[in-house]
Amino acid sequence: MLANDRSMAGAGQTSFIISHDSSAPRIMKKDAHILLCCDVDPDKTSFGATGETQRNEVRWEGLTKGVPAFIDTVSSFEDEQGDKIRFNWFFRSDLQLERLHGDPAWPHRARREVVERILKRNDELGWHPHFWRLHEDGVSWYQETDDLDYLGSCLKRGFNAIPPELRPLVARTGCDFHNAFTMRCLAELGLVADLSALPGIEDAGTIDPRTQRRVVVRNWAGAPDRPYFPSKEDHRVEAHEESDRLGIIEIPVSTYALPSTMKMAKGLRDKLRGSEGKPRYSEPYLTGRNMLFKAALNHHLKRRDPSDIPMVVEFHADDLLQASGAHSTKNAIENISTSLNAFRKAGLRPSFSLASEVAKELRARMEE
Fold first, then answer.
1. What does CATH list as the number for 7-13+27-366?
2. What is the value of pTM for the model shown?
């Protein structure tokens, strides 16, 4: 379904064939946006509350190797309209990186060559602030969720550290965590859109035995399953009065109902990890298994109006280090092809878009 049906390969990775479904209708009815969002974190072996605080223990091969190789792989991909497939890359800049690297926006400066490649492609450079805080033991990290002074400092210092010419318009917070205060902070900083909401997902987090604090805490219970202007008092509630409305648009991730077998398996896994969340919904991962991605696609196409609500998909930079497996480049290529064919069969003309441009379009429509 991409312009030239041929093998593509990233550096050191296997070749991929992009399938074309000739049975799909050729008459397109409406445009539909797909937002491919990559959280550019350190590699998972050193990510989050792992206790690895030394500078040389934090690895960024997902950023330095995975992202450039993937860009090479997709550089020739086009849809039938001849448009390039665009990505949204969300770079870290926060207090954890200031502690580890001496600069909150270390990835922007130390890996500027990757940034330039992203900008040359006309992709979106967004922001992915985490709220990790160093434990009093001086070794472990935990997810701060309550100290508003720390949360505010993390956002303001993280944003201001980003070089002015690279200041983002869109954000996705670490662990998809928000409260009313952090959403107001993003609005005050001038961001036009946030893409953190996970409708249907409420997770009290998993207790880290070293800190006895919960990590991966996110609560989006009751959040609308469509773009909305958040209330100043509750980030999960759509504001209906002008006086209560934040200027930032929330564009939710396209969560989907888990198949029953996956719901049971995820529930058991989360119980073993000490999580209290109920695994009814999940996020779609571009690099995840095609079976699950198809479930997310079917949910989006059948339960939402795709011409009105963008499909928002996640993945992580270090997923791109894997040629195959549970999260891999192979899956990403297959899922891009699956997306194109599925939208086309639904009579839609898919566009892999930039979050800031979609936010502009949504704002104009929502303010009519």
1. 3.20.20.510
2. 0.89
